[in-house]
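Hi R.,

Here's the chain you asked about this morning:
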Amino acid sequence: VRGTYEGYDLVDVEVREDDGLVFNGSVSDALLASPSLRDLSDAAAPLLTTYGAVDDQDSGQAEPFIAVQGFDPALDRGFGPFDPRGRAGDLWGDELNSTLVYLNARAADALDASQGDRLNLLLLNPGSPQPAVASARVAAIVEDSGKGGYGSAATVFFRLDALQVLLNLSGTVSVVRFSAPGDREGGAGSSGPLAESARSVVAGLGLAGARLTVEEVKADSLEQAQQASEGI
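And the predicted structure, written out as tokens:
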């Protein structure tokens, strides 16, 4: 249960492509523009996700498999800020650009990284068999809590538009996330109407939404935890 709350934080509902591939950003735009979804959610934003091998030029440490997320700092504000490690204040991603990224604590510890370190990345491309090569500098290290812990993995955070350019996937996303009304514990209980509304919007998109699935990810994970507990 704790892992569910830490891994999803305020995210309660996700819209993804059936096979985990990317889809056109116009679908995301339609979901975010839906009046019914706006009325039933506290926050909504797209992500572009992939994985990569990362080499820290300054520490000399490399990791072969780290999660990579591209988020929109403006749209993502509803999910709260990042919590910087070792200093006060909040981070929202406004200072990120094509060469500045955040690392969460899991990734920083794996790479023995510090703020300002130079990174080389080999990124798996969800839209092509050809990987992408990138260089970046660590703008800040963020805690594995809130948005920094989404996915419960060592993660590099890019601006969405910067990651789209690096992967030559302009205008595409991997998932649209929604937060149901309530805090991170209460949102799962109110995610049902939100998910049903999202399914109706997706159905109305015709072919553009034919391969999309809507999942109550937090409620489903909590149910699995309950079933596991009963089994024990």
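The CA atoms of residues 46 and 176 lie 4 Å apart.

Let me know if you need anything else.
M.
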